[in-house]
Amino acid sequence: MNHSKEHHSQLFGVLSRLDLVDVRDGLVKQITQGKKEHTSDLTDPEVMELIGLLSGNDSADRFYGYFDKNNQQHQYILSLCFEIGWITRNGSRNIPDIVRLGAWLRSDKSKIRKPLKLQTSNDLHITISQLESISSKKYRSK
After folding, report:
1. Phi, psi of 89 (to 5 degrees)
2. Pair 68, 117: CB distance under 8 Å
3. At 70, is the pLDDT very low, low, confident or very high (cuts 50, 70, 90)?
4. Coil, strand or helix at 93
5. Mean pLDDT value across the chain
6. What is the pLDDT of residues 88-140, one digit of tens each?
């Protein structure tokens, strides 16, 4: 077995373990910034880099929560994370907790179980509606 097949097999194992096989092409596009579309297009060093990125404990949740700072719907989702209390510290400031957001997107509670960056505008509308509902319930219970 050559190294390339070995590394691709290893990558598929990691993707399977994280339940990311169905979104692997989107992951490749995101990681390569649209330059490559399929895992088979990746070089050995790129495959190994991707394996490394996916090997952290919260890597699947983090991937699902990645956002596009230039997308207004994503920006609104991040503001909803603040309202809901899904925040974490980065130095001296609070930032949206994309790992928690990603975990929610992967859960049965989310109607659209796709990474944020792979959601269509309509998918994002549904995700936003759900998050708004969570936010309003939080404020009603206070």
Report:
1. -95, 140
2. yes
3. very high
4. strand
5. 86
6. 988 889 999 999 999 999 899 999 988 898 899 999 999 999 999 999 987 66
Q: Which amino acid is present at 62?
A: R
* Structure-token pair, residue 44: 């050995």
Rounded to two decimals, the pTM is 0.67
Distance CA(50)–CA(7), nearest Å, equals 10
Q: Burial letters for 119-134: b for 16+ Cβ neighbours within 10 Å, e otherwise?
A: beeebbeebeebbeeb
Q: What is the pLDDT averaged over residues 58-82? A: 89
CB atoms < 10 A from the CB of 8, how many?
Answer: 17
In contact, 89 and 74? CB cutoff 8 Å: no
Please answer whether residues 59 and 18 qualify as being in contact, where contact means their C-beta atoms are separated by less than 8 angstroms: yes
Looking at residue 88, what DSSP letter applies? E
Tokens of 7: 């590394």
- Sign for the CA dihedral angle at 140, 90, 31, 50 comes to negative
